[in-house]
Design a protein that fits this description.
Blueprint lengths: L1 E8 L3 H12 L4 E5 L12 H6 L1 H19 L15 H26 L2 E4 L1 E6 L2 E5 L8 E10 L3 E3 L12 E2 L1 H4 L8 E5 L3 H12 L3 E5 L11 H14 L2 E3 L3 E7 L4 E7 L2 E7 L1 E4 L3 E3 L32 E3 L10 H15 L13 E3 L4 E6 L2 H6 L4 E7 L4 H5 L6 E7 L5 E8 L2 H13 L4 H6 L9 H10 L7
The structure holds flavin-adenine dinucleotide and nicotinamide-adenine-dinucleotide.
Nicotinamide-adenine-dinucleotide binds next to α6 and β18.
Length: about 475
Amino acid sequence: MSKFDVVVIGAGPAGYVAAIRAAQLGLKTACIEQWINKENKPVLGGTCLNVGCIPSKALLDSSEHYYQAQHDLSAHGIHIKECTLELDAMVKRKDGIVQKLTQGIEMLFKKNEVTWLKGHGRLISNKQVKIQSRHESHGPMIVEADHIIIATGSVPRPLPTIPIDRNMIVDSTGALEFREVPNRLGIVGGGVIGLEMGSVWSRLGSEVTILEAMEDFLFFVDEQISRESLRTFKKQGLDIKLGALVRSVEENKKDLTIEYEDKEGSHTLTVDRLVVAVGRKPNTEGLIADEVDLYMDESGYIHVDEYCSTSIPNIYAVGDVVRGPMLAHKGSEEGTMVAERIAGHKAQINYETIPWVVYTWPEIAWVGKTEKELKAAAKEYRVGVFPLKANGRALAMEEQTGLVKVISEVHTDEILGVHIFGPFASELITEGVFAMEYKASAEDIARIVHAHPTISEAIHEAALAVDDRALHM
Ligand code: FAD
Ligand code: NAD
C-alpha cells in the first residue's frame, strides 16, 4: 500500500492548488482525480477548467467580439460589410484553451512531484482512500495518508420535473457545446450561469428567454445595480421573465413546449433548446464509506469550521463541497490555507473580502456588503455613487452604461462594500478587495491618485461622493 503525507481527492481549483501547495511545503502528496474529458482522456482541472469558468469565459469573449463587430463598431466610424460566424472555430478555440490549461496543471504536478492517481476515490477509513480506476481490470488500489483533503466540488442541481437529456434539454456543460446556434433558447434559472450562457447565445443570434422563479432579479446583488443591469440586459435582447414557475416541458419532434406561470397567469413558450441552470449541489456521491463518521449538514455539504477542518481531525474539506460561495478563487484559497496549516503554518482566510463577478457585458462585480444586508443588520452607513456616463475613459470607449458604488461605515468611514456595474468590473473590483482587506476608509481611496483617463477614476469619484464631494458630477 502506498503511503503519503497528504492525499487530496479532487483536482479542481480547490484540490489541485491544495496538492501543489502541500508539495511545495515538502509534503509527499498525491491527488486523486476521476474526470474523463470528451476525448475520453483523464484530465485535471475539475469543473472550473473543463466545463466552468474557463470555457464559459472563452465563449463570452468570442461572442462579445462578434456582437461588437455587428452592432457597436459603427459608433466608432467602423463599418464591416459582412460579418459571419464560424461556430466550429469558436468552439475549437475554447477547447484549445481548456486543453492548454488542463495540461498545464499536469505539468505543474510533475514539476512539484505531486502523484496523480487516476480514478474514483472513496474514503474507507480516517486514513485510507480506495481508488477505483475506470478500467475494471486494474482492480481497486488503497492509499494511506496522514492527512486527507476532500475537494470533490459540485454538480448541477437537477430539477426532477425537467430531466436533462443532453440533446434538447441540457445543463451548463451542454450549453457550452451547442453545434449550431439555437433559434430559440430557453433558460430555466436567471442566476449567474443563466445570464452568462444567455449572453453568449443571445450575442450569437439566439432569441433567449430566461425563466427565473424569484420576483427579484439577482437578489444577492446591490439593488440599484440589479435594477440597472436588468434594464441593460433586456435592451441587449435577453427576455427575462421574473416570478416564472415552470409547470411542464413537453418534447416535440423538433422543439420543446414549456408551460409556465407567473403572477399574470399561465403562458406557453416554444424553444429549440432548453438550459437548466438552477444552482449546483455539493458532490459527495460514493465518496464516504458507512464506517467513516464524517459529519455532513442537511444540504449535503461536508461540515467544516473556519479552517476547513471536518469532524475528523486529520480530514479537511475545501471548495464547492463546503459552505460559502461556489467560486473557484474561494476554493483555491481554502486549498492553500489547509495545505499550509497541515505544514504547521498559521494560515487563515478573510471570508468577508471574497470578490464576486458576473461576466455579462457590462460586468457586475462586488465585494463586501450590500445596502440591503447593512439595513437588515441595522448598521449605519454612507453611500457614494458615480455613474460611468460622467467618466472620460468610459465615454472614449463608448461604454457609458453602469456605475460604481462605495459604502462606508458612518462613524469610522471604513469601507463596507464596493459594487461595480461596468466594463472590466472583474479587474477593477480588486481595488475594493485590497481596500477592505487593509480596512481602508472611503477617504483613503479618495486620497489615492488614480491614473487618468481610466474607469478606476469612477471608484475614486464614488469614494469622494461618500463625503458628498465628487468632482466630476
Ligand atoms: P470542482 O472544480 O468541481 O472539482 C472537483 C473535482 O473533483 C472534479 O474534477 C471531480 O471529477 C473530482 N471528483 C469528485 N469526486 C471525486 C472522487 N470521489 N474521486 C476522484 N475525483 C473526484 N467560479 C468562478 O470563480 N468564476 C467563474 O467565472 C466561474 N464560472 C463558472 C461557469 C460555469 C458554467 C460553472 C458550472 C461554474 C463556474 N464557476 C465559476 C464555479 C467554479 O467552477 C467552481 O466554484 C469551482 O470549480 C469549484 O472548485 P472545486 O475544486 O471545489 O470543485
Ligand atoms: P445561481 O444560484 O447563481 O442561480 C440559480 C437561479 O435559479 C437563481 O436565481 C434561482 O432563483 C433560480 N431558480 C432556482 N430554482 C428555479 C426553478 N425551479 N425555476 C426557475 N428558476 C429557478 O446558480 P447557477 O447560475 O446555476 O450557478 C451555480 C453556481 O456556480 C453559482 O452560484 C456560482 O457560485 C457558480 N458560478 C459562478 C460564476 C462566476 O463566478 N462568474 C459563473 C457561473 C457559475
